[in-house]
Amino acid sequence: MKVETFVENKFEKKPLSYILYLPDTYETSKKKWPLLLFLHGAGERGADLELLKKHGPPKMIREENFHEPFIILAPQCPKGSWWPDRIDELKELIDEIQQTYRINPRRIYLSGMSMGGYGTWAMAKKYPDSFAAFNPICGGGETENLCVLKDKPIWVFHGAKDTVVPLQKSEEMVKALKDCGKEDTIFTIYPEAKHNSWEET
User: What pTM does this model have?
Assistant: First the structure.
């Protein structure tokens, strides 16, 4: 896979730039593809899309180490902003991408790290039926209204030695889900990992 499989673009309705990865066989197939929305952390905010390729799936794609049959959508949060405050814009962006590309609406997934983990929780609560599953990494959020997610697949990751976003933040979210009667949340704790638990994830 080559870096030029990234599509760099700007969401016309809102000030969100993004990169989009299309699998090598996208153009030669007619099938609908699963979509992963990946939300970066605070350090990648700004107006330089190259920053998005430092971590997560965009990094794996840049290093030609991503071989999953997924379309990857990685938007960039503007400097000074915060993903939980841009949830509606993200939803509009997904809607636009669905109109432009062949996306399987039943296989849209949401993941994010650090600030993106907070964004994942916030967006999951507001638009639970828009996604098939959620994967917050070293994030957290408000525990209110989490019961809307009790029937959704969720896999949470966190480093036990994280001093930026303490492990407690994910523990609180998982406990709130359990209080809703959700017993099947997968919660992976890396005993030696600090804030960069996304590297092990």
Answer: 0.89
